Amino acid sequence: MTTSSTIQALDFANGWKNFWHGDIGVWILGRGVPIALLLIGGLLAARFISWAAQKVVRQLDEQYRESDQLVRSESTKHRQAVASVVSWVSVALLFVVVGVQITDTLALPIGSLVAPAAVLGAALGFGAQKIVQDLLAGFFIITEKQYGFGDLVTLSMVGVDDATGTVEEVTLRVTKLRSSEGEVFTIPNGLIIKSTNLSKDWARAVVDIPVPATADLNVVNDVLHGVAESATDDHALKDLLLDAPQLMGVESIELDTVNLRMVARTLPGKQYEVGRRIRVLVVRELRRAGIVAHDGNAPVVAALPHPAETPAEDDGTQRTAEQKQ
Fold this sequence. Notes:
This protein is an alpha+beta fold. It has helices at 2-21, 23-66, 74-106, 110-127, 129-143, 217-231, 271-288, 311-323; strands spanning 152-157, 160-170, 174-178, 184-188, 192-197, 203-212, 246-253, 257-266, 302-303. The strands form two sheets. A five-stranded antiparallel sheet has the order 4-3-2-1-5. The chain has a four-stranded antiparallel sheet with strand order 7-8-6-9. It is elongated, with a radius of gyration of 33 Å.
C-alpha cells in the first residue's frame, strides 16, 4: 500500500510539473496571472478613489454642519462638485490604463487593430455624439461654477419642461436634482440650455403689497418703513437678512388697489423663507394701522412664489399671518 501510494503521489507531482511547463501553464504564469493582478489592482484602485472622493465630500459636509453658517459657501459647493468630477475622471483614466496594460500583456499586434479601431471609432463617434456633448457641457458647468452641490437651481432644457430642485450631484455627464417633493431628476448636461441659480452668493426676496386705492399712501409708507426698519430685529429674520428691507414704492395701479413693492437681500436660498415672514409682519402692521380693503379684511400680501411651492402653502402662510393677529 505504501509503495502504491508513493507511486501515485509521484505520478501526480510529475503531471502537475508537466502542466506548468506546458503551453497552458506557461500562458497562465506569463500572462494570465499578470492580467488577473491588473484587474484586481484596477478594481481596488477604483474603490479607493471613490472612497477618497466620498471622504472629501463628507468632510466638507461635516465642516458645514458643525459651523454656525446658515448656508454653504460658494467655495464649499464648488469643491464638492469638483471632488465628484475628479473621482469620475480618475476612474475612467484608470480603466483606460488597465486596458492598455492588458493589451500589452496579451501582445496583441497593434498594427492589425488600426483599421478595425478606425471603423469602430467612426461608429462610436456617430453613436456617442450625445455623450460627448454631455461631457463638454458638464466640463463648462464645473469650470464656470454655474452651480454646485446644495444650490437651488432651475434648469431649462430642450424639448422638456423646466426642472427645479436642489443639486445633489454634479458630474461631467449628468446633474441630479431633488425636488421639494423628494423626487430626483437625473438630467444629461447636454440637454441644459439655461441654468438659473437661485442661491448664488445672495438672493432677493420680493414682496408685493396691495392696498386699497382709497388708503392714505403716506400712512401706508410710514407703516411699511417701520416694518423694514424693525425687520432686522425680528428673531426669524435677523440671521437671514444681509441688509434692511427697502420699500421701492408704487409698483402698479389697478382699479381698486395700489400695489407697492418691498425687497430685501437675503442669504442664498433663503429668499422664500424671508418673503413669507415679511408678509406676516406687513399684514399685522397694516391691520394695526386700520388699513383694510373694501370688504373689511386686511390686504392679502403676495410674494414671488417659490418655483416648487404650491398654492396651498401660500394659503397656509396667509392663514398663519391672520391667526397671529
